[in-house]
Amino acid sequence: MFDTLADWLWELERTKGSEKYTAVSVNEGYRVCARLPAYFVIPTLLPEENVPRFQGHGIPIWCWSCHNGCALLKMSALPKEQDDSILQVQKSFLDGIYRIIHKPPKELVKTEDLSSNFVSLQDIQTAYAKFKQLFLIDNSTEFWDTDIKWFSLLESSSWLDIIRRCLKKAIEIIECLEAQNMSVLLLEENASDLCCLISSLVQVMMDPHCRTRVGFQSLVQKEWIMGGHCFLDRCNHLRQSDKEEVPVFLLFLDCVWQLVHQHPPAFEFTETYLTVLSDSLYIPIFSTFFFNSPHQKDTNMGRESQETQSKPLNLLTVWDWSVQFEPKAQMLLRNPLYVEKPKLDKGQRKGVRSTHQRQPSLPLTQSKSSPKRGFFREETDHLIKNLLGKRISKLINSSDELQDNFREFYDSWHSKPTDHHGLLLPHIEGPEIKVWAQRYLRWIPEAQILGGGTVATMSKLLEMMEEVQSLQEKIDERHHRQEALQAEAPSLLRNSVRLSSLFPFALLQRHSSKPVLPTSGWKALGDEEDLAKREDEFVDLGDV
């Protein structure tokens, strides 16, 4: 949950980052800043007394450590000032910070300003507003009227393009960490929106632990909950300001879904897991996605408010799935095709590198020569200008060299067999980025495929796995072997010919009269039946 110092120490040990970074409790009781968590990680060489100087702004905060010793960091910008003397103090402060984390030629840090060189929150808000209109269908007639222009409307929303840009940005950062052996410092005004998004995607792609259920939940807790993402404002739970409502976390889940869709065996959880998690985001009964910061959560749940004398809120955590689902239904959240990484015995372990020193999934590009004279000052000026809110005309990461490195890295990885327990990159070409159908189309009967889709494929695969397992048991004569997880899952999917492609949210497809050419004249046929008034067909699935 990352609400204790021990959780951060455990994560540092797991990622082998404890040599260069240390967990601090300087903000315990939120003495320094209400925006930051009580505990977080900073570079070991950074004096703790620097943290409260600007209320936590301008401090590089650790996110994750790579196997080669590089790290992913984030930093919130210093407040904008007009006074030259204050600007000089800020410049001197940032110069000192950067000298601590950037020590060429051994320790290089690349700055990535997400505030001025990436999609904006306004872009995300506008794109999603257009995108969700495609799924607000009242009746069958309206569905077929929009069907003929659906793809052009989808493209004009730019939602899939934003997903592509997010995945591409994450791959660019991975290329710096993995191929160039450079740490990356993410910059944003408050480091609580796009920083959370990109840092989380990088970890999902690079760290197989984050592709397990426990690891993914820990990732959300660390980067989003403790990272200070403003769920109350971004989800607009109180309906106070539509301007602040931006689906950043939903965008993250959509990006993860693209990875799950392209590489199913690499994830312990299913797309159904992501769908119900996205639903929980907008159900304001869970403390997980209800507050703007850990401080706000502790204030409203930890003790009675002294001002209002109101009782503390008693909200549930979203991670206790037994609150929402029965055990059989929870089986749908676990991927039966996922195979854990085999553990080596002591004899095998001797000749193998430890996990954090494993060879990357592709050959590293030729290491760059040490920076030329003046590089440090140039990088420092870039960092300072970005943090002080001044845009610069040409940023480093827009160079042709970066695009060449990205393309070489991307193509090289995809040319080799996929290691589902190693680095994982998505395909980001146009047709590869798809609509998350189970989430967005599940309430539209006309969009469902009876006896088809992913559920049919999964059912056949599980049947094959059962058969292989049965044969293996006969060969090994191990009839006492415990029933595997996949032996339970097919019982829910055994009659896949009768299930919808959007199972488990839709059980049977309703028949719909599809016109040969769906035009506005289709309304003249008088089919104005409201989908909400139709009687549901029922399929007996036991207790599920």
Automatic annotation (TrEMBL):
An annotated GO BP: phosphatidylinositol dephosphorylation
Coarse class of the protein's main subcellular location: cytoplasm
Annotated spans, Disordered: 344-372
Biased segments, Polar residues type: 357-369
Coiled coil segments of this chain: none
Domain Myotubularin phosphatase: start-end pairs: 2-440
CDD domains referenced in this protein's UniProt entry, alphabetically: PTP-MTMR12
A Pfam family assignment: 3-PAP
Subcellular localization(s) per the UniProt record: Cytoplasm
Keywords in alphabetical order: Cytoplasm
Cellular component terms (Gene Ontology): cytoplasm; membrane
Family matches, as PANTHER family: MYOTUBULARIN-RELATED, MYOTUBULARIN-RELATED PROTEIN 12
Family classification: Belongs to the protein-tyrosine phosphatase family. Non-receptor class myotubularin subfamily.
Protein name: Myotubularin related protein 12
Organism (species): Rousettus aegyptiacus
